[in-house]
Amino acid sequence: MKPFLLLASRAEDDAAEEEYESYLRFGGLLPAELHRVRLEAAPLPDIDLDRYSGIIIGGSPFNSSDPEESKTPLQHRVEKELSALLDRVVAQDFPFLGACYGVGTLGRHQGAVVDRQFGEAIGAVPVTLTADGRADPLLAGLPEKFDAFVGHKEAVSKLPAHAVNLAGSPTCPVQMFRVRTNLYATQFHPELDLAGLLTRISVYRNAGYFPPEEAEAVMDSVRPAKVDAPGTILRNFTARYAR
């Protein structure tokens, strides 16, 4: 089997390693089947799409809707590299799944409005599939309504006409969308379980998602959550596109 490619941009090793392990676990992949490139560490090398079964983009500290003048040189580089890669990925309808940051990258690339209107605090939210979502193969086996972990400052407030909305929540109408046949993005985190979320709350306590002194209270607030459905999306993705 050709490996999948994970494009990551978390500079904090604890969060980066746990993210990688979660994609392996929920995707049902062996380490040799998931090649990771850490975009924050070095420029994106030339990517030969023929070497891979599909591409996954993990979460990121970056927000595509940040004012251009406030973005760091690193963020500008990463965005430029991902945009160039997406030119090829979209043209070929190459299997792609972006989680959280994938909404900003694929969404902006395709003309969606990505802004701060529908940001959600860290926690579990109820996600409901649309009629298109219920018919989509990547969501096979999921209930029509399920809880998922979120925590994001930006979101899609308007999809382009050619994109298909697959799921939404009461506080964020676009939780998952599809472009063409094989290009997907989720606003929620299909790779996150409770342990992973607790790690991120600790690691990113100073990232502006909540007052740093409230980190323990945020952890306590998410501990009762029962989130077990979203990982099915990753398994469906790897099973559908492995080649």
Automatic annotation (TrEMBL):
Q: Which SUPFAM superfamilies match?
A: Class I glutamine amidotransferase-like (SSF52317)
Every copy of the Glutamine amidotransferase domain together lies at: 44-193
What Gene3D superfamilies is this protein classified in? 3.40.50.880
| PROSITE patterns registered for this protein in UniProt | GATASE_TYPE_1
Q: From which domain of life does this come?
A: Bacteria
Q: Does the keyword Transmembrane apply?
A: no
GO CC terms: cytosol
Q: Spell out the Pfam families in the cross-references.
A: GATase
InterPro entries for this protein: ChyE-like (IPR044992), Class_I_gatase-like (IPR029062), GATASE (IPR017926)
Metal-binding as UniProt keyword: no
Keyword vocabulary terms for this entry = Glutamine amidotransferase
PANTHER family the record matches = GLUTAMINE AMIDOTRANSFERASE YLR126C-RELATED (PTHR42695:SF5)
The molecule here is called Glutamine amidotransferase
* Organism this protein belongs to: Arthrobacter caoxuetaonis
